[in-house]
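Mods, move this if it's the wrong board.
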Amino acid sequence: MTELSSTAEEILRRTRPLILSGGYDGFSYADISTIVGIRKASIHHHFPTKAQLVRILVERYRREAVEGLQKMDEAIADPAEKLRAYTGYWQSCITSGSEPFCVCALLASQMPALPDEVAAEVRVHFRALATWLTSVFRDGLEQGSLHMAHDPEIEAEVFVATVHGAMLSSRAHGDPAVFEMIVRPLVERLVK
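Not the wrong board. Structure tokens:
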């Protein structure tokens, strides 16, 4: 990815909460113009289309997630602790309101309406997350620290779906505690 100007960076930074609150169709360049304090033409200069803006935002989000998972791998050896750290990260984000939902999960719920280039980036994010979790599950199986009923690939997909579903349930109930109520038994089932 090429380096972006400070204005383009600000546009991306201000777009992320708009996506989290309303999804792909929940904002316009007029909204960004008002928030950032620049003309719509300036936004189009940096991001000619909304699809391009959101694709770059999702690509960056995905790269940040991969870097975070790599740091977790470096800091934590035990697969069970990695699962706890991953769900703990989301619990903290949801409770604090700093990142109340995964950008890609929200966009995935709108997949049929997304431009192809955005949908492709969302798919790449989910593949990367499932690949990382599969490796965590394989390591846990080899070390005997995780117990699973299915192959690591299946358990990884179940884990992704449950964690993201817990985000949705937490949002629907307006209660961050719902997230923990759902994911704690998920992790406990795997660690026992």
